[in-house]
Amino acid sequence: MDVTSALTDVASALTGIANRRPLLVVTDFDGTLSPIVPDPAAARLIDGALPILLRLADFPGVRVAVMSGRGFLDLAERVGRLAGVFLIGSHGAEYGSPAGPSLFGPRDGLVEELRALLAPYAGAFLEIKPVSASVHTRRMLDRDAAVAVREATIAGPGSVEGRTVKVGKEVVEITVVQADKGVALRRLADEVGAAAIVYLGDDVTDEDAFAVLGSDDVGIKVGAGPTAAGHRVPDSAAVLAALDYLANALASDDDGLRMAHWIDRP
Question: Which of 2, 28, 203, 254 is catalytic?
Fold first, then answer.
């Protein structure tokens, strides 16, 4: 990736959208606001993300949300219940303001099925959420076995009627309600009356959100891989720079100086 070219492209897009109101700014958590780590429980906001989220949320006519495949309470623990920041968990199945979530369906016997499936495999582990469960293979040293776990999860528990499968990087998530990030994004955009949307995400599941963006919205893919997003940045540090740039664009009319400052950042 030509980083300088990518940052210039994103800076131009953010400059163009900064005067649209109401503006909805939504970002994924893992791989976007937090670098991917081997243990999902160890994931934390990248340094500097919290004040930027709060700064963006403080602008008149700007609404901010963090959307994740994590359960709402897990997400709230890592991001915090911030004034003006919506939290959307379980790929949109859990949705709410900082005060708390609204659940759209219960979890059933899925967890027991997945535990039985994973029992023979070293390194595979299960993450349990309020309306879903995720099979993680990132710790599996036997990569052939990791592929087998992935395929068995999709073909077995994932094939049951009424369940939705989300396939990501080293993870397969099965939810017992119909939800995806695209549906959740459109619901939130309608609720706040958004005139424009900025969405940032890194994973396969974020493609559902990129797919519902309009031609005047800004979708930013984080990292490598095919995407429907119109723009791309390399990593979480660049996400932080993009959000900081957007905050400055909202606060200042000096586009040239702001663009130069962001592209030339250390």
Answer: 28
Q: Are residues 188 and 233 in the same domain?
A: yes
Q: Is 180 a residue of the active site?
A: no
CA 254 to chain centre: 30
What is the gyration radius of the CA atoms in the chain, in angstroms?
19
Q: Report CA dihedral (260, 16, 190, 161) to the nearest 10 degrees.
A: -70
CA distance to 6, 57, 240, per residue, from 60 (Å): 29, 8, 21
Total number of domains in the chain: 2
Q: Are strands 94-97 and 100-103 parallel, antiparallel or unpaired?
A: antiparallel
Residue pLDDT, tens place only, 58-117 = 999 999 999 998 888 899 999 998 888 999 988 887 776 544 554 444 455 788 899 999
Judgement on whether residues 77 and 30 belong to the same structural domain of the protein: yes
In DSSP terms, which residues pair with 172 in a beta bridge? 135, 167
> CB-based contacts of 56: which residues, under 8 Å, 6+ apart?
25, 62, 64, 243, 246, 247, 250
